[in-house]
Amino acid sequence: LDTLLAEAEADRPAALLLCGDLTNDGREGEHRELSARLAQAAAAGVRIFVTPGNHDLGSETGPEEFVGYYADFGYDRALSRDEDSMSYLAEVSDGLWVLSLDCNIYGDKTSETAATISDATLAWVEDCLARAAGAGAMVVPFSHHNLLPHTLDGTVRNYNNDQAARLG
Q1: In angstroms, rounded to a whole number, what is the distance separating the alpha carbons of residues 138 and 91?
Q2: What whole-number distance in Å separates Cα of residue 30 and Cα of residue 34?
Q3: For residues 144 and 21, is the Cβ–Cβ distance under 8 A?
């Protein structure tokens, strides 16, 4: 982490996207430590955006707490937030937006593969893409789980998203 953030501080990419599994089992202390370290990098000029992974939620951290820990890394700058997940749309720079897609299983969500996007979230994504098109912005989606199948037959669990056919 220190090497990654040091390189980002030196290189100043347009954005640093962290795609989940930021902690081990959603431990509060790990979230606090990481968000403090990310704040140091942000103060040095690195634009950081996070999305949750399946190991970021647990008995100590639910969706509300996760958003609180990482409010400064996408959530507070969101142009739009999904009501059915921790997904958000944010502007990186003029004409470049990121779409954080939370595909995790928590609450009453279920999946046969390991990740899902609800119909409500898919409708929200379509609205975000229409908004971006209207603004002439390019959208870079990012997620912890694969958005498209990555196994040869596409049926093995392997952390595919059960909505992959609709996302492709």
Answers
A1: 10
A2: 6
A3: yes
